[in-house]
Amino acid sequence: VTMGIVSGLGRGGFGINNYENFIQPDAAINLGNSGGPLVDAEGRLVGINTWIISRSGGSQGLGFAVPANMARFVMERLISDGKVTRGYLGLGLQLEMTPDLVKEFNLPNMNGALVTKVEPDSPAAKAGFKKADFVTEYNGQKVRDMRQLRLLVSQTAPGKSAKLKVLRDGKEKMLTATLGEIPREM
């Protein structure tokens, strides 16, 4: 099975949570296969079939699966805590980076997440984040884009500290935030 990772499908009214990075398999996922395993040619679990977009209502269309490592994260949280809690920083992030934004903010490249808003009284505000900070690392891991940062934050338990490297006015700065729990209304 050949696969590609699809991110950010929660936009546009699909009703899918924005945390997920879905696998889009080349193999058809039939209606009714949700929850079934997606395996590779050697029988190893790589994902859990989740949904299909089909204009006809049949198997023609796009199928998506949750990656196995993400399903494992959820399973481990359910076993240990009885629920899934997601970390919360309180940042608004630029959806897509463009060459124009890189130029406007004098950034070295598009690899990172541009802060567009800092929620008042949020963990991010308490850590000293400012609008136009460009997040390049989260706990030592390079940040490719806002989707990856959002996923990394969501998979960090509330109450844990995170070290984030940001570019601010052309200078690197380390910020430490103690994550909160995502507010219920979100």
Overview of the structural elements:
- This protein is of the alpha+beta class.
- The chain has four helices and 13 strands.
- The chain has helices at residues 68-81, 99-104, 123-127, 146-154; strands at residues 3-7, 21-25, 37-39, 45-53, 62-67, 87-88, 91-93, 113-118, 134-138, 141-142, 161-168, 171-178, 180-181.
- Strands 7, 8, 9, 10, 11 and 12 form a six-stranded antiparallel beta sheet that branches. Strands 3-4-5 form a three-stranded antiparallel beta sheet.
- The longest helix is centred in the middle third of the chain and has 14 residues, at 68-81.
- It is globular and about 50 Å long.
- The two termini are 36 Å apart.
- The model is unreliable at 1-17 (pLDDT under 50).
